[in-house]
Amino acid sequence: MGVEIAVDSLTKAFGKQLIWADVSLTIPAGEISVMLGPSGTGKSVFLKALIGLIKPDRGSILIEGTDIASCSEKDLYEIRKLFGVLFQDGAMFGSMNLYDNVAFPLREHTKKSESQIRDVVMEKMDLVGLLGAEDKLPGEISGGMRKRAGLARALVLDPEILLIDEPDSGLDPVRTSFINQLFIDLNAQIDATFLIVTHDINTARTVPDNLGLLYHKHLAMFGHREQLLSSEEPVVRQFLNAQTVGPIGMSEEKDADELAAEKDLHMPPLPPIALQLEPSNGIPRKSQRPPGEWCRENGVTPPPGSFTPEAALS
Amino acid sequence: MSSTATRLLAPVGTAGKLFAFGLDVGRGLFRRPFQLREFIQQAWFIASVTIIPTALVAIPFGAVIALQVGGLIKQFGAQSFTGSASVLAVIQQAGPIATALLIAGAGGSAIAADLGARKIREELDAMMVLGIDPIQRLVVPRVLACMLVAVFLNGMVSVVGVAGGYVFNVVLQDGTPGSYLASFTALAQLPDVWIGMVKALIFGLIAAIVAAYKGMNAAGGPKGVGDAVNESVVITFLLLFVVNFVLSTIYLQVVPPKTG
User: Sheet of A193-197: strands edge to edge?
Assistant: First the structure.
């Protein structure tokens, strides 16, 4: 039933190069959160810190009372059993076929018999639409298939937390939509905590319950999707609407001159907030809130045309 | 600390990390479950890439020693000791050294390339995230396999080398077969065989640990894997020759030479 991740004033630098400082947020249990950020802002590093692959310099990451940032190697291996992680390229074991890849965690961590393993593996392969490809090697299949196989492997131990690194990189728009729908359906089914790292705006606008934005070495904002999608904050606004006008430049943040030159340019009006994707069986997820509720509770007027089916197309 | 000092001290840090990695592997040795399947597969794989080259290296090695020692010993008029001298040289030095070259060059480079490729494809990360320690799962079986194969290779080099020496001594240098064989025990003794095996065991350990360390720390894409393989072979060669020197010195001090 999902686990909460509490991150407090997390800081990481590689040598002299600061990646991000004082990142504090709580990823709510059982909800889908998306972490956004321009390329090279350390989104993947953040994800790796959450699973203890990279030790942060300062701060803590609390999961079920264990601090990932400072716990012993043994506790770390124990707590990682709660996680399912989908790496950017799937990170399949190249020497094994897909079936053995997906069966690997079960064989290592459970005492299931081969026939029980077969049932679980086939169920997960079916879920990601890879039935019939069990005997293929990771090198023989497309990037999208590798990604889906990676997802099947991440799901096989029924994780409480699912971390997903750029599910849309290298996928065509149709496959991206399918995989997004799959995340929603999975969340409805297993109630795990989802954290998706991406810079695909469409994913960010339609999938998550919560949105976060990493920018300029800090966490610019983290909150309910409607909070960010209706935000007037220049950085958030620029990023979520993919505009050139705003504080984010081509290489890094823009300098004062550039910003001054842009001062008179008006940012285009906020587009309407799209409806969140629903589970395909029509039964709402536990963590789902009615559209517009956050805006009403916080007295924010959503951009005109929000929460209508047409808003998704704009 | 100034940047020059940091740069000067960097090799010390690397040596320390390598040593710490060795200790991690030592700890992983005793962690259960032992990966028997991986161990057998790796032993088979390393043996298959090293056996033929080792045999091919051993023959000229034995022959060169036989020619050199045979020629020298003739000048002293001690032909009857030719067999003994070449056995000593092959078993104590040539065997372990030829083994080291092949284990590092063929076995070690394969290990470094394999682990390096897994590292840059994030397979090792994925493994850690799945709650499995790659040192215990992948490195320990490879280190043990490398040590086992090294000992067997050493045995093979010794046999092939001595046989090669025999052929060259008897056929090319007109030595008498009887005296070649009879003199085996004149100067050589059983501890010479043990030290050869111990050396091979240690060389296998070093080669596998350096290769695994370099492979698991490969960075920077496919080029990083190539660099890791290259560095692992060079570092292993250097280490093995130094260790061989140290072990030989200790052995010659500790075990008194047999006087015929």
Answer: A83-86, A161-165, A193-197, A32-36, A210-215, A218-224
